[in-house]
Amino acid sequence: MGAIGTAVVFIWLGMVLAISFIEAPLKFRAPGITLQLGLGIGRLVFQALNVVEIVLAALVLYAVATDPPGSVPLAAVGVAVTVLAVQSVFIRPRLRRRSDAVLAAPSQAPDGMRNRSFAHYVYAGLEVVKVPALLAAGITLQAGSALG
């Protein structure tokens, strides 16, 4: 089960890197993308990412529950899952409310996306925590699988 957990962790890591650190920042630089269009795309993409992350987290938790690893991979998985929970329960709803307000009154929206909310910075900061946690989880789960 360790190999499956490792694979799932690296799939999760790849998705976070691709969406949060490549797609999201580049989206607003594309020609012709308006604030409303960018927010609409972002909402759909991050909603889908969140659902997939929750499924992947559940699979990883199942893998470590059925084949318990050592304390380091378990701690790394715990950090990643906790970050995801905080993002899903506390941060994404705030971001959704903000984007709702911007989409409802585009003329009152901040100039471009330069005026990001505090919630955006918290979300990005948590992504910066989640990435090394997933990397550590994947590497240490793999090491445990190789040893076992």
Automatic annotation (TrEMBL):
Top-rank lineage group of the source organism: Bacteria
Membrane-spanning parts: 6-24, 44-65, 71-91
Keyword Transmembrane: yes
Keywords: Membrane, Transmembrane, Transmembrane helix
Protein name: Transmembrane protein
